Amino acid sequence: MSITSPLAKRLAQATPAPIAMRMRGLSDRWIAWIFVGPTMLLLLAINIFPLIWTIKLSFTNFRANRPNAEVSGVGIDNYVSVLTDPDIWAAMQTTAHFVFWTITLQTLIGFTLAYLIDRKFRGHGFWTTLILIPMMLSPAVVGNFWAFLYQPQTGLFNAVAAFLTGVSPSSFSMLGEVSLAPWAIIIVDTWMWTPYVMLICLAGLRSIPDYIYEAAEVDRASKWRQFWSVTLPMVLPFIMLAILFRGIENFKMFDMVNLLTSGGPGSTTEVASITLKREAFEKWRTGYSSAFAIILFVAVFGLANIYVKALNHIKSR
Amino acid sequence: MSQGISTAHSVVEPTSGTRWFAGVVVALYALVTIIPLAWIIMTGFKTPADAISYPPKVVFSPSVEGYCNLFTTRSRQTPEYIASLPPANGTCEQIAREQKMVVAGPSNFVPRFTNSLIIAFGSTLLSVGFGVMAAYAFSRFKVPLKDDLLFFILSTRMMPPIAVAIPIYLMYRELGLSDTRLGMILLYSAVNVSLAVWLLKGFIDEIPREYEEAAMVDGYTRLQAFRKVVLPQATTGIVATAIFCLIFAWNEYAFAVLLTSGEAQTAPPFIPIIIGEGGMDWPAVAAGTTLFLVPILIFTVLLRKHLLRGITFGAVRK
To answer: Are residues B180 and B244 in the same domain?
Structure first.
């Protein structure tokens, strides 16, 4: 992709270093500050300041629907009650279940698809573009229209499932039954985000130079052996990157679940973000939910950091 | 980037049987995956009765009732009153009269759609503008703590939106930014600027420094070189980044549903709450969904070469 020619590089090296300093106008140092400034200001105002405010709130019993009530500090009480609340742990478990299954399914299907697309059959560009469409859509709008497809009896999903399995289309409700609702969400998420994993895997597969396979052929390695000792290890960093991005996104999952089930039936699909919304914007326990928000952030941040370390370790191998 | 040295009869070329099999499986997957979308577009052209018929109707006589219901509000009238009216002008009025109703006025769909457009374009302009400047600085200058700053910019994306929404809600209430377009533009800009900086830094890194240095030797100042050399070279990257920002702002739901309710409400929180008489008006919802998705479909096709880069924050390039 880069257009740097060796000649241009050599020319650049031959140019005396302080050339920029003799130029007219603002010094580079000033330009750097002026250029980075607006972004930093925006992030400070809309991200950092609110974050600090959340931390402050998390040590109080403030309620946003009673702005005039007296606010008192409660120390780490909010954190203690969040961490000892069985509902919170149930939500975390639901989230973990959701993240685990979506990532597993998306990785398996996504990698298989990428592998097949990499066979470079005629028209693969067209089919790939078609497959990519779901991931570009709005998760909220997707959740909403899948709710329509999941309608008991009249929904398309029920009709197709009934046709394939022979059960009556009105005998089950994907969104209304405790045992089915989590899977209803997993299916939609997999439908939507498999293309994402596929696209990253495809980049991985295409980054493997042909000569490695040619060398493997010369060594008389079987196709099976080639797959396990060339293809998979070389695509692994890409798969892990896809899992990282999907993991972070699905840990925060809100839109789709809110529109499909909004946590129900009961609280069987109540993932962490839904619990957070209920605590913060329905029960208005602002202090308590701030503490929960901070715990969530620390969890994502910590897990992502550990994961990135592992990823770099694999890459450097 | 793969630098394959494949020849016509390379041993690594798949056999025609393999290709054929792969092609069939992928095409089947693509067709199955597109069915839900096709179904929604079809539902937009059904009557409410056809939309919830059992078994689901694949063949139906198309109707624009869904689109009429999306754009108008209607009120029920007595048959005598309707009979006393002059002949209906317009298809929507006609359809409404057949159901003993008259069109009462436009619905909120157009204002909500307009909000979506204004907020998406406003925030894209701001985040790409700020982003390209920061990306240039990070790409070319020694910024103190560069890596930490870049990681910090990325980490702002890791916050669950609901967690950010709590203090934003309080802050906007204080500042009078609640339910305003300006508030939403600022918020989406802050979310998008991290993506813009990371993507654009990748694109600008690919432009050889020698170009600007040559221009500066010719007497350009640093700013002139940025404007007249780097920006034109980065056009593709800027456009791709802008489209990604647009798509994010267009699709965003969590902040929109929590922080807007009327004045600045965007389409995603509005579409799911279109309710007709006696429950969800599915054809109207489907019509709204279709109109909402059309720009995204166009953008997806335009962007397909840069998709990978956009969705991985520039971590994977082709």
So the answer is: yes
Residue that finishes a domain, picked among B72, B107, B142: B107
Whether residue A250 contacts residue A194, with contact meaning beta carbons closer than 8 Å, is answered with: no
- Which A residues 267-306 touch B at CB under 8 Å? 272-273, 276-277, 280-281, 286, 289-290, 293-294, 296-297, 300-301, 304
For the segment B141-189, what is each residue's pLDDT rounded down to a tens digit?
888 888 888 888 878 777 788 888 888 988 998 899 889 999 999 999 9
Q: Is any Cβ of chain A less than 8 angstroms from the Cβ of B213? A: yes
Torsions phi, psi for B228 (to 5 deg): -100, -15
CA separation for the pair B184, B126 (Å, rounded):
12
Strand B101-106 and strand B275-276: the pairing is unpaired
CA distance B235 to chain A (A): 15
Based on the domain organization, do B103 and B234 belong to the same domain?
no
ipTM: 0.85
- Chain B residues touching residue A153 (CB < 8 angstroms): 54
pTM score, whole prediction: 0.86
- Please, are residues A126 and B21 in contact by the beta-carbon 8 Å criterion? no
Assigned domain for A18 exists: no
Q: How many helices (H) and strands (E) does chain B have?
A: 17, 4
Specify the CATH number for the domain of residue B188.
Answer: 1.10.3720.10
Instruction: Please indicate whether, in this complex, the C-beta atoms of A203 and B318 are within 8 angstroms of each other.
Output: yes
Q: Is residue B42 part of a domain?
A: no
Range of the domain at B80: 48-107
Each residue of B41-85: pLDDT tens digit?
Answer: 999 898 888 888 878 888 888 888 889 888 988 888 888 888 888
Determine what percent of chain B is predicted with pLDDT higher than 90: 29
> Can you tell me the distance from the alpha carbon of A259 to that of B120, in angstroms, rounded to the nearest whole number?
22
Would residue A4 count as lying in a domain?
no
- Asked whether the beta carbons of A158 and A172 are under 8 A apart, the reply is yes
3-state SS assignment for residue B142: coil
* pLDDT higher than 50, residue B6: no
Q: Is residue B300 part of a domain?
A: yes
The domain total for chain A is 1
Which residues in chain B have their CB less than 8 angstroms from residue A134's CB? Answer: 33, 37
Q: Can you read off the two tokens belonging to residue A222?
A: 């079987």
Same domain (yes/no): B234, B218: yes
Residues contacting residue B106 through CB under 8 Å, at least 6 positions apart: B71, B72, B73
So what's the pLDDT on residue B1? 41
Q: Which domain holds residue A210?
A: 79-316
User: Residue B75 is inside which H or E element, if any?
Assistant: strand B72-76
Tokens representing residue A105 in the block: 């399914």
CB B248 within 8 A of CB B295: no
